């Protein structure tokens, strides 16, 4: 749609930077990505916390603070609660931990209500477990700061996750929704490149997917030749 294209152009002019988040609770990997100088934030989820052996409420809350200190950017911290009152209570506690915390809320009925509540309170949110453009539209209507379509998990069931990114981009551009499209469940480097072509605002993936962007065999061959020629001329 022409109007959507025009509005995307102006959006690109205002936001020239595709944000890179790392999807892990591993502090070493977060620091490594931060040292590369391209990291804009971190996303976590209960599975990623468990993978690092972080269990028990106090340890989990402390780990979120440690992550915030390891990165200069947004850190998504997911609620475990599934009822409105509990999501609010848990989300407010997470938001109070650190300015960088973004409260991650699942795309369920009470989650949508909570997105609206948090939006009115000025608490930033990431609506997670999004698998359809209808869910993404609802999240934007409810005032989510980020929406997380899980592209890898759609690919896993023979449904093209990248098509979902394109659909959400078109819908958000049609109405100039400010909710940022955070392409999640990125599995590899080409997912990042394709998301960039489609205009995802943010991608979150493993360190390997980010480091994969570095690699090209012709770079290695070219560098080897430059260094060999230098050595020949300076021996
Ligand atoms: O950001 C969501 C992500 O953690 C899910 O990734 O690889 O478990 O589908 P994955």
Describe the structure.
It is a single chain. The chain is α/β, with parallel strands linked by helices and 235 residues long. The chain is 56% helix and 16% strand. It is built from 12 helices and 8 strands. The protein has helices at 2-14, 27-36, 46-51, 57-70, 84-97, 109-121, 133-141, 151-156, 161-175, 189-198, 207-211, 217-233, and strands spanning 19-23, 41-43, 74-78, 101-106, 125-130, 146-149, 180-183, 202-205. It has an 8-stranded parallel barrel, surrounded by 7 helices. Strand 5, helix 7 and strand 6 form a beta-alpha-beta unit. It is globular and about 75 Å long. The N and C termini lie far apart (62 Å). Mean pLDDT is 94; it is low at 1-10. It binds SN-glycerol-3-phosphate.
Architecture blueprint of SSEs:
Blueprint: H1 2-14, E1 19-23, H2 27-36, E2 41-43, H3 46-51, H4 57-70, E3 74-78, H5 84-97, E4 101-106, H6 109-121, E5 125-130, H7 133-141, E6 146-149, H8 151-156, H9 161-175, E7 180-183, H10 189-198, E8 202-205, H11 207-211, H12 217-233
């Amino acid at each position: 749609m022409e109007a959507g294209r025009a509005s995307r152009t102006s959006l690109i002019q205002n936001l020239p930077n595709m944000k890179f988040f790392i999807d892990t609770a591993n502090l070493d990997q977060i620091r490594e990505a931060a040292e590369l100088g391209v990291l804009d934030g971190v996303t976590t989820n209960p599975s990623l916390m468990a993978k690092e052996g972080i269990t028990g409420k106090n340890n989990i809350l402390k780990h979120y603070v440690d992550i915030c200190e390891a990165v200069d950017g947004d850190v998504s911290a997911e609620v475990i609660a599934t009822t409105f009152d509990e999501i609010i209570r848990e989300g407010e506690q997470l938001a109070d931990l650190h300015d960088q915390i973004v409260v991650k809320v699942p795309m369920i009925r009470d989650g949508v209500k909570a997105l609206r509540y948090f939006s009115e309170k000025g608490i930033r949110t990431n609506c997670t477990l999004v698998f359809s453009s209808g869910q993404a539209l609802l999240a934007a209507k409810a005032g989510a700061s980020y929406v997380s379509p899980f592209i890898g998990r759609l690919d896993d069931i023979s449904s093209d996750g990248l098509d979902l990114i394109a659909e959400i981009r078109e819908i958000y551009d049609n109405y100039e929704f400010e909710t940022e499209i955070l392409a999640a469940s990125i599995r590899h480097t080409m997912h990042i490149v394709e998301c960039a072509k489609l205009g995802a605002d943010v991608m979150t993936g493993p360190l390997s997917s980010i480091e994969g962007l570095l690699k090209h065999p012709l770079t290695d061959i070219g560098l080897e030749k430059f260094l060999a020629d230098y050595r020949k001329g300076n021996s």
